Amino acid sequence: LFANTAIDNSLNAPDLLAAVTPFGYDAARLNAGKAIVSDLEALHNQKEIKYSNKYAQTGEKNSAREAAYDKYIVHVKLARVAIKDNPVFERQLGLQGKRATDLNGFLLQATRFYNIALDNADIQTTLATVGIDTTQLQDGLSAVTAIQAAHTEQINAKGEAEAATKIRDQK
After folding, report:
1. Of the candidates 31, 43, 63, which has an alpha carbon nearest to the alpha carbon of residue 163?
2. How confident is the model over 96-131, as pLDDT tens digits?
3. Spatial distance between the Cα atoms of 25 and 15, rounded to a whole number of angstroms
């Protein structure tokens, strides 16, 4: 902003232009500088847009993760009740131990739980005794898949933001 103001003032005031010309800042050089400033402003704005997109994607991913995690935890608790006397189902569904809190661990555990439950009719019958039907299992898997998609979008947005910063910084 300051550079544009200084350049515009010099170009629009003959006495200022006359004062800076002996130092190598004639109208042609000032106009070239104005073009550079304009390009830098455009690059900076592009970077800001990319970072805004990145932050939006992060928010979407976090919202999707929270919703899916809450749903998954309810399903895990109910499944543990339903299969408490069946260690084979417990092991197949990966219900022993604590739930992962990191994204990758959560995605692995939840995907395993839903895929195996959806592929095994006996597990589905057992889960139905505590109110978990195949529609709920499919919804849970869809929620986990949505997190994976949102995470991919976030990573892409992050890369675009970093690339925009690099391009701006190279000018």
Report:
1. 43
2. 999 998 999 999 999 999 999 999 999 999 999 999
3. 13
Q: According to the 3-state scheme, what is the secondary structure of 31-55?
A: HHHHHHHHHHHHHHHHHHHHHHHHH
Cβ atoms 164, 46 nearer than 8 A: yes
The DSSP H or E segment spanning 88 is helix 87-93
**Which tens digits make up the pLDDT trace of 65-78?**
999 999 999 999 99
d(C-alpha 46, C-alpha 171), whole Å: 13
Q: Whose structure tokens read 């309810």?
A: 74
Instruction: Read off the tokens for 22.
Output: 């002996």
The reported pLDDT for the residue numbered 60 is 87
Q: What angle do CA 167, 147, 73 make, to 5 degrees?
A: 145
